[in-house]
What we know:
CATH architecture of the domain at 1-123 and 384-447: Orthogonal Bundle
Strand content: 5-15%
Number of strands: 10
Main location: endoplasmic reticulum
Mean pLDDT: 88
Bound molecules: protoporphyrin IX containing FE
Cofactor: heme
Binding site for heme: 456
Radius of gyration: 25 Å
Low-confidence stretches: none
Amino acid sequence: MNAFGYEVSWFDIFFLVVSLVSIIYYFGINTFSHWEKKGIKFMKPVPFFGNTLDLAIGRQHITTCHQVIYDYFADDAYGGWLANRSPLLMVKDPELIQQILVKDFVHFYDRGTTVDMKLDPLNANLLNMTGQRWKALRQKLTPAFSSGKLKLMSPQFNECVDDLCGLIDEKSNKKELIDVQESMSKLATDVIGSCAFGLQFNSLKNPESEFRRMGRDILRPSWRFKVRTFMRVISDSLPSLLGVKAFDKSKEDFFINLVNDTMKYREDNKVERNDFIQILMNLKKIDENMEIDPNNESHVILDDKLLAANTFIFFIAGFETTATTLTFSMYELAVNQEIQDKLRQEVQTTFEKYGAINYDSTKDMDYLDRVISETLRKYPIAGSLIRRCTKAWQVPGAKGKLEVGDRVVIPVYPIHHDPKYYPDPQKFDPERFTPENKRSRPPCTYMPFGDGPRICIGARFALQELKTTLSSILLHYKLTLNEKSKATLPLKMKPRRILMQSEQEIYINFTKIK
Ligand code: HEM
């Protein structure tokens, strides 16, 4: 055979193919020894997919994958494994978890998500930011979530819940099935619309709402998500190298324009409202009047792009998480009638005392707090926490250290379901959260919002939304599980989703209380 003027023999071709296959194979296994070198026990991986083959092909939800790994390291404080080719350390011991998330936080500043903020400007947000820039931004944004600001948002929450009750009544009158996840997603979209953007998104009133569609599309596993997932099997930074964006341009423009137009309208018309955009606009004004060195890492200037990216993350991080938690809590109340009756009793008594559902009255509902805590225990929407080592850290009891770039996973879901901390973990039991029972558990065994300085910034906002919605619903309706849903039990989680969500639709009957 003749190629490029050279005589190519069959041996040459054979040699080339074997070399190529060997290189590819080596690439698929070259991270296998990562944990062994550090003297850390690890789970036997398979080439390319490490310990996440079932996850990669969509046969497993990420929480199930973490449960399998958690069970494998039964009596160990930690263990090494590979997500595709990336080495990860799963830390199981609560004391060690506290050390990583809180005490030794300087060693674990970042989440280690591989995002390209230039390629995807909406990713330049608090969730993805790293190091000193994250710290400076977090300090700036924290006041937006103070209890004072939250208290002022009560009327906005109530307006949206009234619209939800309107939707429930309309569907019940027409004898239509009520898909709770979809209804709660609409509610949470409208709440974020009102509290973040100061706009009426109207998803509850208008089935064609653009915002509901946007929210649904952005979280749905698209072809883009699948391509990026596949690329990550090869290398975490491949999507960025090849310019494959996380969000398509139309969605990115939609959010950036929404924020810019809202700000312009307010500036031109001298409108001020009680919402996140206003708080961020006020912070931006302060930044504009200060002399800040743009090259100083410990300063961030809140410009239009950063403002849009962070309003965007409030939307993304804020609506699906609360909507799904509400769905699971209503499901559990519908299947546990005694708990529902007890909760309604508390809501009615407190409502009579305060004459309203608001920040103060919900603060007085202890049992409501326990029901929500138990929901977040059984269904911790985020499933796990991740940290990237930012300063070498000696792994207690091991030969080696975690080096900069090594990543740690905190398995929240398996810890929340470990009978050692929560006997009979599948049982929905709010009494696990009485003050005595809470005290009896080690720290870092309840982490639905994470822990340490990177704990969820929106936790108080989310809890207030959950409390307002659940108490208002229980005041007006009795919840029972629809026969159509009963037939599909037990609940299964949707694979290929980062957050937990039921694979089956959950239909609930809402019977009006006279
Ligand atoms: C039930 C509702 C929610 C749950 C279960 C939840 C859960 C979480 C978790 C587990 C984290 C990671 C914490 C860590 O790594 O230690 C997180 C981070 C975050 N959440 Fe939430 N979240 C909820 C609602 C919200 C809401 C309503 C907002 C905003 C309005 C929000 C905004 C954020 C942001 C910006 C971060 C990144 C914080 C940082 O890195 O500094 N979340 N959330």
